[in-house]
Amino acid sequence: MTTQTETPYNAMATEDLQRLVEVAQLITAARDAMSDEIVTRMAGAMSEGLTLLDRLTRNEGLMHLLKVLDRQDTQYLLIALSDAVHAASQEIPAAPPATGGLACMLRVIRDPGTQEGIRLLSVVGKHLSHSLREQHRHGG
Fold first, then answer.
1. What is the rounded (10 degree) CA torsion for 89, 94, 97, 103?
2. Which pLDDT belongs to residue 134?
3. For the packed helices 72-94 and 60-69, what is the interaxial angle rounded to 10 degrees?
């Protein structure tokens, strides 16, 4: 009477064979699920996606913006901006409506955060104006 025991090699081969069977079943199921309509829609979506990608990569202004957005200092600004937008979206609905009037405006203007915000917008506006003038001067 002979007893057969699986060696570690046979166990690995059995596991590999089982994985191969599972992959084959997955491919078969995917092939069965692919109707002509799905294939047509996927091809259309891929075509539209490639067209959009082509347009985006030909846009000089967008490519310049993406280069600037990739810089670390710009990343800090974007993170701060997204945090500020989130905080404002939480703070504004929870605050009572503004009462209006000159006294209310003076309270808002005295807030250091308001002053920093105005300063930020002023600096961005200054650089935007300068850049636009330079582009027009150079025919850009």
1. -90
2. 92
3. 90
**pLDDT value of residue 6:** 56
The per-residue pLDDT for 1 is 47
Q: Contact at 8 Å (CB) between 74 and 68?
A: yes
Q: On the CB side of 23, how many CA atoms lie within 13 Å of its CA?
A: 6
Residue 126 lies in a domain: yes
Whether the model clears a pTM of 0.90, i.e. scores above it, the answer is no
Q: Are the C-beta atoms of residues 114 and 108 closer than 8 Å to each other?
A: yes
What residue numbers bound the domain in which 83 lies?
Answer: 63-95
Side-chain-side CA neighbours of 106 within 13 Å: the count stands at: 3
Residues of the chain with pLDDT under 50: 1-3
Six-digit token string for 4: 């057969």
Indicate whether 45 and 68 sit together in one domain: no
Residue 4 lies in a domain: no
Q: How many domains does the chain have?
A: 3
